[in-house]
Amino acid sequence: MEKIRVGILGASGYTGADAVRLLARHPQVEIAALTANSHAGKPLAEVFPHLSMLKLPDLVTWEEVNWSKLDAVFCGLPHGTTQEITAKVLASNPAIKVIDMSADFRLRDMDTYAEWYGGTHRAPDLQAEAVYGLTEHYRDKIAGARLIACPGCYPTATLLSLVPLVKAGLVDASEIIVDAKSGVSGAGRGLKQNTLFCEAGEGISPYSIGKHRHAPEIEQEIGAAAGAGEPIAVNFTPHLIPMSRGELCTSYLRLANGATPDDLRAALEAAYRDEPFMLVAKKGVMPQTQNVRGSNYAQFGVFDDRIKGRAIVVSVIDNLVKGSAGQAVQNMNVAFGLEETSGLLQLPMFP
């Protein structure tokens, strides 16, 4: 089998670099193009010395790439920049598969996108064909998709733990509270005051309270799982933790239809029994970000709440792997009919 030739848009960012790290050891992939307009002309090793042992093409501007020579492209660009570039890439090569790690194609409703991202969607026709890339729940659609919109890191951790419970009618979808915490890499590689060492270190801080852009994405998928005729609202608050990578989401749930926390755990075990990356912790075992760091695994734990009729679900992922580049590679594997775990069997790093 000929190797799949891939390009990575935004290879100088954290998600782009992790995509390179994973794809470089994928047995059926050749990295044929790397773009980073601000670093064009440089070898990637100059931007990311930890990848200096790899033989890779130099960074170029996205306009310089011959997209007709590629089979797939991973988009690791900031939101708002991917739509027009994706349209041009697909126009030059309609057969290419686009695996987008930005937020530009995640929201199905154009008005919702405009409300949360501050502008009209510039590729509505493409949005209509985009498939939401939560692999474990959209695998069949991803298999035939040309444009895959990979979920955000917070939605990935939250939805993987809650969608099976909502679908089974075990929790009240209208009363979900998510307390989320992410490592600093989730903010991207650009210079921002709040992510400087002295600002983020030795403390924890909430941000975007009541207005984080991942909230409507979570609500979209929870609503779909619930079959809700009306919009679902989720109480979602993110926090910045002084660590490089990792994500932990604690969801506070009201039980429904007589369910118990043990029923929730059993539902997750049943939903993910055959899933290679889904780990449901045994009763009493607490998920930790250390358990999945550097890997494509997700771990879930279910706990009794001391408040009657409620339960607490904890989920952890590596925000750059299962929350971004790893899930993107998993989606590529599905889209090309490859073994889904190819290039993704790295075990968690500890300590």
Automatic annotation (TrEMBL):
Pathway: Amino-acid biosynthesis; L-arginine biosynthesis; N(2)-acetyl-L-ornithine from L-glutamate: step 3/4
A Gene Ontology cellular-component term: cytoplasm
Pfam families linked: Semialdhyde_dh (PF01118), Semialdhyde_dhC_1 (PF22698)
Entry's localization field: Cytoplasm
Superkingdom per UniProt: Bacteria
GO biological process: L-arginine biosynthetic process
The protein, known as: N-acetyl-gamma-glutamyl-phosphate reductase
Gene: argC
